[in-house]
Specification:
Radius of gyration of chain B: 25 Å
Shape of chain A: globular
Largest sheet of chain B: 6 strands, mixed
Oligomer: heterodimer
Number of helices of chain A: 11
Strand content of chain A: 5-15%
Distance between the termini of chain B: 102 Å
Radius of gyration of chain A: 26 Å
Strand order of the largest sheet of chain B: 14-13-16-21-18-19
Number of domains of chain B: 1
Number of strands of chain B: 23
Strand content of chain B: 35-45%
Number of strands of chain A: 9
Distance between the termini of chain A: 69 Å
CATH superfamily of chain B: Cupredoxins -  blue copper proteins
Chain lengths: 397, 343
């Protein structure tokens, strides 16, 4: 058997490798050194101003070479008036390399500024800042403040939502399915919202070369698949790890929601960091309100587990609440102290993937317990009302 | 879980990575115009005070007048012969680090300052070594066929001889007049043509200033403004003049896109002769407004030594390069004369 297989195995490897080698040869022929096949057209240099910070009596500009060729940043201006500046580490930027441009400037708080950078061929790129606000200095006080905001937005509302557990336990199956469907509706809205937000951030702040939409979709799908795979393993091995199946599902939902809440914390931290204080107040109130529904989502599957003792249930509830809620704190720290549009897009997309994974898990739960379809009145009305509620609250926020 | 963990680590590495590029090296310091001292481990990018290493020398251009190859006709008419070569492939560093495709007469923007006396016969041998059609269109009085509009001179060595009598008295621009005209002007095909009165003007420290703009990114807005092409040049290289000495500036506005330009002098007023056609000044002012190709002659003397700014009072222009400094030195010779007169 072995010997008769050997030649065919070699053939198999060869048949797999040869097309691959041909692709390499093709690539070398087209792009390799000395090739002038594609040497036509004009490569236009491009830079993207990713971040503007107002620090003391300076304006700090983070710039990235987002074009196809290396370039030099040679001049800075503010409101189209040339300013002396320093550039660190140096003015030569390879593809995707970043540099920090420090422009000494006595800026005024809350005034709009247009920051311009000129490269060696004389092309000027600009970015408008709607209102100058001092950059957040990482301090223990601010650190604490973000922790409090994160707790208020993440942990407390989720815990409140979890308090519905006894209520959900007592209601009939169809009403229970209604609540599960309601969370699906809420989450569906949030998932789409996160995708939209990620695309918006990438459109406004990321260069075209990052392919913002595809970046968002790719990361979301990866996040979804990763969590889906891990979640399934967790549920399959529930017995081994000493968790009951409902608890394992609840844990998966909590992790998914936690990743989503990290994105929310990021948004709040960034909003405070960018100086839009009124906006962040709205964000905080809005997120706090709708995060209570996330508690319901976790409580749903947990209510199926009638075996848990009261004490162990309470411990589990607190644990799940922390898993789902506390990432908001970390998100606020990251968003407030080291905001970068690229990482925001990544985190928002991960959050979106996590949400969709939670949706799939809940839907499967409904399907398995129900009549193997989603056409019951409780499911349809639950999802519809969930989305409507979110849409209406989003208008308020 | 491991998958999730590695995903998180990988992503956070991507996110944190950009901060690694801020490598440490030796510190540099620079002082801004508002007096702030900035320390940096990086490079200073400062067209305002960086001493330019640009190839065109505005200081040389400032006081350079070309009288041509002089000969005399039997009837006593002075003939001045010039050769002007147009090119359009030169890339010049116009401000520190900024490179721009200039179109030039005799290799510079502005082209050479041509100077003659009223009534002289001018003979300008024009050679077009560029890749596009070019001409020279002189402002002034001349026959239609010498106007440089309908006689496009072909690229790659095309020739034309412009012949006309110098006049009227004053300061005039010359420029290429091939369509699209704006393109040919903003790239630099222009220069100054001075016609002196037969009786001459009072001796003075004379200079030429062409007020121009550079649209380096072709968005029909000027990225730079200057007196004599290089932004901020006379700010980091002040023009040295003397007290109690007559200064005469032939100023020509060649700025495109912006409807007007202006010229403000600090610590002094000047006599202004619009277009230089009259020998009696029309204004005594420190501020003139100039439309496209509007020009004139300014005359002034400084009584007190020191540094005096001159700039566009359209401040946008001055903050994008159209600003300079007169460094007025104590004129000891004149003082001596005064002392002598006193005796």
């Amino acid at each position: 058997m072995e010997t008769s297989h050997k030649p065919s195995k070699g053939k198999m490897i060869a048949s797999g490798v040869i097309p691959f080698l041909l692709i390499i040869v093709l690539a070398v022929y087209i792009f390799g050194p000395g090739s002038d096949l594609l040497d036509f057209g004009v490569s236009l240099p491009e830079i993207t101003i990713e971040k503007v910070d107002f620090v003391g009596s300076e304006i700090h500009v983070t710039v990235r070479n987002t074009g196809p060729i290396p370039l030099e940043v040679v001049m800075a201006d503010i409101n189209d008036r040339i300013q002396p500046a320093a550039i660190e580490p140096d003015r030569f930027l390879e593809r995707y390399e970043t540099a920090l441009v420090r422009i000494p400037f006595a800026w005024n708080e809350a005034e709009p500024y247009i920051i311009g950078l000129t490269i060696e061929d004389g092309t000027r790129f600009e970015k408008e800042v709607e209102a100058a606000a001092p950059a957040l200095e990482p301090s223990l006080e601010l650190f604490g403040l973000f922790a409090v905001i994160g707790t208020y937005v993440g942990i407390i509302p989720v815990m409140i939502g979890l308090l519905w557990l006894p209520f959900i336990r007592r209601i009939s199956k169809s009403k229970y399915h209604f609540f599960l469907a309601l969370t699906v509706g809420l989450l569906l809205f949030l998932g789409i919202d996160a995708i939209e937000e990620a695309i918006e951030v990438s459109n406004e702040n990321l260069a075209g070369s990052f392919n913002g939409v595809l970046l968002t979709v790719t990361v979301s799908v990866l996040s979804f698949l990763g969590l889906y795979y891990v979640g399934q393993k967790l549920i399959d091995n529930a017995q081994l790890s000493g968790l009951s199946k409902p608890v394992a599902i609840a844990l998966m939902i909590a992790i998914g929601i936690g990743l989503h809440n990290f994105g929310e914390g990021l948004a709040i931290g960034a909003a405070v960091g960018l100086g839009s204080i009124a906006f962040s107040t709205f964000l905080i109130v809005g997120f706090a309100l709708h995060n209570t529904t996330e508690g319901i989502a976790i409580a749903g599957p947990l209510s199926k587990d009638k075996t848990l003792s009261k004490k162990s249930l309470i411990v589990k509830l607190i644990g799940l609440g922390l898993i789902a809620g506390s990432p908001a704190i970390f998100g606020a720290w990251v968003g407030g102290f080291s905001y970068s549009p690229f990482s925001s897009v990544i985190f928002l997309a991960i959050g979106a993937g996590a949400i969709f994974q939670v949706i799939v898990v809940i839907l499967r739960m409904i399907r398995e317990e129900g009549d193997k379809n989603f056409s019951s009145a409780s499911v349809v009305s639950g999802i519809s009302i969930g989305m409507l509620v979110m849409y209406l609250t989003s208008i308020l926020v | 879980m491991i998958l999730l963990l590695s995903l998180t680590i990988g992503l956070s590495a991507i996110v944190v990575f950009p901060t690694f590029s801020e490598a440490q090296s030796e510190q540099k310091t620079f002082v801004t115009h508002s007096g702030a001292v900035i320390r940096t481990t990086g490079e200073v990018i400062d067209p305002l005070y960086t001493v330019s290493t640009v190839e065109f020398d505005p200081m040389e251009y400032l006081r350079e007048f070309n009288y041509g190859h002089v000969s005399e006709l039997p009837d006593g008419t002075i003939v001045r012969e010039f050769t002007i070569i147009a090119e359009d492939d030169k890339v010049m560093e116009v401000s520190p680090g900024v490179f721009y495709n200039v179109w030039t007469y005799n290799g510079t923007v502005p082209g050479p300052t041509i100077r003659a006396t009223e009534g002289d016969l001018l003979k300008i041998n024009f050679i077009n070594n560029g890749s596009k059609e070019h001409t020279i269109h002189f402002h002034g009085i001349h026959p239609a066929e010498m106007d440089g509009v309908f006689e496009a001179v072909g690229p790659g060595g095309g020739k034309f001889v412009y012949e006309f009598e110098a006049g009227p008295v004053g300061v005039h621009p010359y420029h290429c007049h091939v369509m699209p005209l704006e393109e040919h002007i903003i790239h630099g095909l222009y220069g100054v043509f001075i016609v002196d009165p037969k009786e001459g003007r009072a001796p003075a420290d004379e200079m030429v200033m062409v007020l121009n703009g550079l649209d380096t990114d072709f968005d029909t807005e000027n990225n730079f403004y200057a007196a004599n092409t290089i932004p901020f040049y006379y700010q980091h290289h002040p023009i040295q003049i003397n007290t109690d000495e007559l200064i005469r500036i032939y100023v020509v506005n060649m700025v495109e896109f912006d409807p007007i330009n202006n010229f403000h002098l600090h610590g002094n007023l000047y006599k202004y002769y619009p277009t230089g056609t009259d020998l009696v000044p029309s204004f005594y002012t420190d501020m003139i407004t100039l439309s496209q190709t509007e020009r004139g002659i300014m005359e002034f003397e400084y009584s007190y030594p020191g540094k005096y700014l001159f700039h566009a009072h359209k401040v946008e222009f001055s903050e994008k390069g159209w600003v300079g400094i007169f460094l007025v030195n104590d004129n000891e010779e004149q003082d001596m004369e005064k002392v002598d007169y006193g005796n």
